[in-house]
């Protein structure tokens, strides 16, 4: 594949995209990338990707750097798992994006190119933040207050009754995932997700998903 053919495919992609040369310089910046982060192609092209995206992780630590580990892993291993990034925007505010990485060997020009596909996950991150705050609040509860919040005492060891799939779904619920997102994550149908949720609610003696997350946090399941 030629470079211009690759860029034409990325132009038609729904995700925001940019491509980086082996030296770390941005050689392609899509219109959707401009819409997502606000930087124009004129501002981004020929710049080191770390100076534009300037990504941080959930802990606020710098992820992007001139000597990018993601680019190096992509070039040496050929595959990098998708990851979340708190990226810079032209407005100065940061935005949460999920990034997938593709290594593209092109027939002309610097190769391989490391293509980054980005999608907006602001809504998911806000839900995750709210869930963490709820879990932190429950961790602070003691005595009668905690018992009142959970309404009934849990079974003696609920974790031993959960299947591995139910435990995985419980962790996804704690991250704020909805039924459709969980179905996509585990490659199962929404109906199957609802069945698993119903079973774990029964096993944890809970009425709602939120109560299950709270109980799981108190019992050390998540």
Describe what this molecule looks like in 3D:
This protein is an alpha+beta fold and 222 residues long. The protein is 48% helix and 14% strand. It contains 11 helices and 5 strands, in the order αββααααβββαααααα. A 5-stranded antiparallel beta sheet has the order 2-1-5-4-3. Strand 3 (83-87) and strand 4 (95-104) form a beta hairpin. Mean pLDDT is 82; it is low at 150-160.
Number of separate strands: 5
Tell me the helix content.
40-55%
Average pLDDT: 82
C-alpha geometry: elongated
The structure class reads alpha+beta
The value of Rg in angstroms is: 22 Å
Q: List the secondary-structure elements in sequence, H or E.
A: HEEHHHHEEEHHHHHH
Compose a concise summary of this entry:
By secondary structure, the protein is an alpha+beta fold. It contains eleven helices and five strands. The longest helix is centred in the middle third of the chain and has 19 residues.
Write the layout of secondary structure elements.
Elements (H helix, E strand, L loop, with lengths): L2 H9 L4 E5 L5 E4 L1 H7 L3 H4 L4 H5 L15 H9 L5 E5 L7 E10 L8 E8 L1 H19 L2 H8 L13 H11 L4 H8 L3 H15 L4 H11 L3
Antiparallel strand pairs: 1-2, 1-5, 3-4, 4-5
